Amino acid sequence: MKLATVAFYGFSVGLLAVGLRELLTGFEENRCSMTYMFEYPEYRRVALPRRVARLYPAYGLYLYGEGLYAQETRALKLTGAPVLFLPGNAGSYKQARSLGSVALRKAENMEGTLHFNVFTVDFNEELVALYGGSLLRQTHFLHESIKAILKLYKHLKTPPQSVVLVGHSMGGVVARALYTLPRFNTNLVSLIITQASPHLAPVLALDPYLLDFYSAVRQKWVSQVTKLRNVTVLSVGGGYRDYQVRSGLTSLPCTPGDPNKLSLVATAVPRTWVSTDHLSIVWCKELVLATVRAFFDLIDPETRQFTENPEKKMAVLNHHFIRHPVRMLGEAQDTISILDSPEAWSEVNTLRLSYSTPKEGQVKYFLFALSSRRKAYSHFYCRSSSLEMTSWVYGCVHRNGSSCVHAVDLSMDTELLPPYKVLILSLSDLSSVTHLVVSASNLNGKQFMVECEWQRQESQTLSVPVPHVLSFGLTVSDVTVNSSGLLHTIVLQHFHQVYQAFRINVVSQCKVHKDRLSNVYRMKVPWFREDSLTTVSVPSVTEISGMLHTSRPDNSSGVLLQLHTAPNCQYKVSVRTSLPRVLGQILRFCGPMVPVYTAVTLLLACGGQLSSIQTSGRAADMSQVVGKGLQPHKVNLPVFILHILLSCSWFKQVWSILFLPPMDALPPSFPDLTFHEDVVPVEEWPRLLSPLLYFLGAAVAFWGSAILRLIMRLISLILAPLHRPSVSRDCGTLQLRTQLLITLSLAVLGVASCGALSLFAAFLFHLYRVLRLQMTERSLSHMLNLAPRKHREAENGAVDVETLNKSKECNGAPLLSECALQEVRDDLQLHLCLSAVLTLPVMLSAPSLLHWIRNLRYSTQLDPDPCWPHAVPLIIVYMLLINCNTVKLSNSKLLPLTSCLPLPLTIAMVIFSPLHLYRVTYFLLAALGPLASCCLL
Q1: Which residues, other chains included, contact 699 with Cβ-Cβ below 8 Å and sequence gap of 6+?
Q2: Contact, 231 vs 163, CB < 8 A?
Q3: Secondary structure (DSSP) of 7-65
Q4: Which pLDDT belongs to residue 513?
Q5: Taking 70 as the threshold, does the pLDDT of residue 730 lie above it?
Q6: Within 13 A of 538's CA, how many CA atoms are on the CB side?
Q7: What is the model's pLDDT at position 676?
Q8: Tally of CA atoms within 13 A in the half-sphere of 617 that contains its CB
Q9: pTM of the predicted model, to two decimals?
Q10: What is the mean pLDDT of residues 816-827?
């Protein structure tokens, strides 16, 4: 093995390690507060009809309760509003305790009759994100559970007509799948809230059932958008802490402008402003409180059930998850009269107001004249550290002396930030207002600060082009802001793609040190609700992570960096490309391509091994053939050419005539996308990054095969005392009768139970063959005292002519000879290479095997089985390859054809497998089938 090869693959795996480290750990600490239960939680099982219990023995429906409430609901005589929690992939039904407990405590604190009955579904913690065969079964059970829940309220005068669904992870996808059922009444569910649910596409498509399920859900919601317009759906992504489901996948695929579908990231939710991992999004107190507050505001006071009004639902969700103004959209705008004494009024003639309330409670109003400011300024900016969301800014309509006696409320557009609330008014919208009134009253004695100023938005907006992604952090773009105002906006030009990642440093310095309000740096993404906020003190040095969850489809605008600053301070903003974060973003969005290129490398290595046997009759060292499996000029170049040809209409027609499926593409990175099955948008940047992904996949194959060789050596050392020493290359082989019997038994086992189980058993038989060859090689080396000796090989790894001739001349030599040892070593290298390839189908089928094991007490047969019917051909191939050796292959007439197959199959694998990972097994079978035939012909 050449040192350059080891160094190259070491560098490649180093890049992979840096990207993985950034992906898994390169985010803020968990700032979520834990939700606690004040009393012991109880889960009361709800009896379902016998037919349902018989059809779904592994599932269950429970009612959450604790303390006195749990005792009162023992008889299931319920009077609250029903909420149903759906766990996700491997999720427990007990995850509903955070939502249930917070809702219960808030109902008790309100001392009213409004409360919720929180139900939860037990899906047996199934791995539905990796095995899609259970998704439809879960959807049917959910339908039955909803009907059973509504039956519990039949004794009420005004029983609820619908159930609110809260779905975590794949539970949110199952909730939307309800509408694909032919007998589902759409009125049963009118509000769905999903948490970290991958709506756009599955994270990994390891079986066809998963993609078929997604296709049916997407087609239903897109084709019947008018019928489902009254169904309100809110999707919340976790942010960068959630590396399992990237937040771009949580975007709802819907028609542009659909008013009842909302997609956002938890970092942009008012009063939350935190990133959550995939599990903490369920119990994050800040997010749970936002959800529960929305539930209480959604209650119709007349029916004491959830409102069916779509406008009301959207107004509440916008209030709690988008902006959180002082009142909800749709409520009447108040016209108020202010009758306080003239001493409470102060007119402000300066450009800026900074006021701190005293400890003693008082009534205070500040009056700003508009007439003298309209021409010179475009906006009025005001902020207050009093976080009470009450009316505080008014437009004066009628003035009497120094005070305003008649005013309209302008606080509707107030926006809540972590340290204060902010209101920005456009003067062009205030034509009927003569003065602005800012209330700084603190009747309760609480101290806070108010800062206001007139702004000319054009002069407080700067633009800076971000460095190129290939600058590797060597270049920096910076801009200096001499703060004469309270708000500055920096447009980050050309920052609109997810593969871009920057380190944004903000250094603040102030001439005068005094008490100031905290600064807020806000990364605002115009095309998606994924804003992130950073609160800092002044002066400070702050680093902001500049990354995106979604791309801008038309590249028409960039990201905005809003600086809520302190006056008379200087801010220096520098933007530098971060290579580790770029690698992390590439793995976040293109990670499924890495295992595809790993399979490509191993398959090309197998082809190189066959070519070596064909030309020299000897097997090359495994590390050498795997090292040569990196051939981007032979794989990526044809794929790129084919992509260019598919842009031509005539080639598309030829492609369709041949009934070929469309080229696979990763899920798009831009949000709110509507596309049909035959029109899938394709982004160019993943194709341009394919060589880098090939390097990473080849590094995984190279070092993975090295680890496999090491494991084989260690296991053979452990098992050696249990076996008699062997000196034959046929050790571990099977007789024909035994082969047929085992193959038939494994096929029957796969049909009767699980195809992945029989496939794994066949793989173990082949692995035993490798272990026996490893033990035989060691035994022969010791017997011939050859362990310290080194074989004469050329620098390029090829065997020299003298050794080759010696090998050919000793075919009839005695068994204990160097020739016999060399034959065993050749077979060992061949089978090590085969075992690396054979590992891939086993790994891809592992989720279905795990699912079958977890449900074994309910059913001994996996239905449906994604490994059927290709499991039987694979078992036959595995069993035939056990008896394979270099002599049989070199004498086979099919070897020249077989050795040419890996390259075209790897090209096809790159074309058709990035989204459909399960297709990798089909291409491996197409290559291994002829190879197994070489053992017979």
Answers
A1: 9, 12, 13, 15, 16
A2: no
A3: HHHHHHHHHHHHHHHHHHH-S----PPBP--SS-EEEEEPP--HHHHHH-TT-EEEEEE
A4: 65
A5: yes
A6: 25
A7: 41
A8: 15
A9: 0.90
A10: 84
How many Å apart are CA 153 and CA 135, to the nearest integer?
A: 28
Q: What is the 3-state secondary structure (H, E, C) of 665-700?
A: CCCCCCCCCCCCCCCCCCCCHHHHCHHHHHHHHHHH
Q: At 613, which helix (H) or strand (E)?
A: helix 593-616
Residues that are catalytic: 169
DSSP state of 427: G
What's the token pair of residue 676?
């049909």
Per DSSP, 800 falls in state: P
The pair of structure tokens assigned to 504 is 């944004």
- Nearest CA to 671 out of 559, 554, 593 is that of 554
pLDDT at 515: 72
3-state secondary structure 710-766: HHHHHHHHHHHHHCCCCCCCCCCCCCHHHHHHHHHHHHHHHHHCCHHHHHHHHHHHH
Only one residue has tokens 């029109």, namely: 679
For the segment 736-780, what is each residue's pLDDT rounded down to a tens digit? 999 999 999 999 999 999 999 999 999 999 999 999 999 998 888
User: In terms of C-beta density within 10 A (0-12 exposed, 13-18 middle, 19 or more buried), how is residue 790 classed?
Assistant: exposed
Tokens of 120: 């939860």
Instruction: Quote the distance between the C-alpha of residue 651 and its chain's center.
Output: 35
Of the candidates 907, 705, 839, the residue with the CA atom closest to the CA atom of residue 9: 705
Three-state secondary structure of 491-503? EEECCCCCCCCEE
122: helix, coil or strand? strand
Q: Which amino acid is at 751?
A: V
CA atoms in the 13 A half-sphere facing the CB of 786: 18
End-to-end CA distance of the chain: 33
Tokens matching residue 336? 């108020």
* Mean pLDDT taken over the chain: 89
Helix, coil or strand: residue 518: coil
451 pairs with which residues across the strands? 354, 383
Segment 884-896 mean pLDDT: 91
H or E segment to which residue 821 belongs: helix 818-844
Q: Which of 160, 190, 148 is nearest to 314 (CA)?
A: 190
Half-sphere exposure of 284 (CA within 13 A, CB side): 30
Q: How far apart are CA 209 and CA 197, in angstroms?
A: 18
CA 611 to chain centre: 41
**923 and 905 Cβ atoms separated by less than 8 Å:** yes
Q: Do the beta carbons of residue 427 and residue 442 sit within 8 Å?
A: no
The helix (run of H) or strand (run of E) holding residue 355 is: strand 352-356
- Distance between CA 176 and CA 250 in Å, rounded? 13
Q: Say how far apart CA 731 and CA 814 lie, in whole Å.
A: 17
Would you state the structure tokens that stand for residue 68, as one six-digit string? 């006195």
List strands edge to edge, sheet with 540-546: 476-483, 569-577, 502-510, 540-546
Q: In this model, does residue 229 exceed pLDDT 80?
A: yes
356 pairs with which residues across the strands? 449
Helix axes 871-882, 736-752, angle to 10 degrees: 160
List all residues 6 or more positions away from 50 whose beta carbon is below 8 Å from its beta carbon.
none
Using CB atoms within 10 A of its CB, is residue 3 exposed (0-12), middle (13-18) or buried (19+)?
A: exposed
Neighbour order of strands in the sheet with 415-416: 352-356, 449-455, 379-384, 421-426, 415-416
Q: 156 in helix, strand or coil?
A: coil
Cα 77 versus chain centre, distance: 40
Q: How far apart, in whole angstroms, are the C-alpha atoms of residue 798 and residue 621?
A: 9
CA-based R_g, the chain, Å: 34
CA dihedral 462, 248, 270, 23 (to 10 degrees): -80
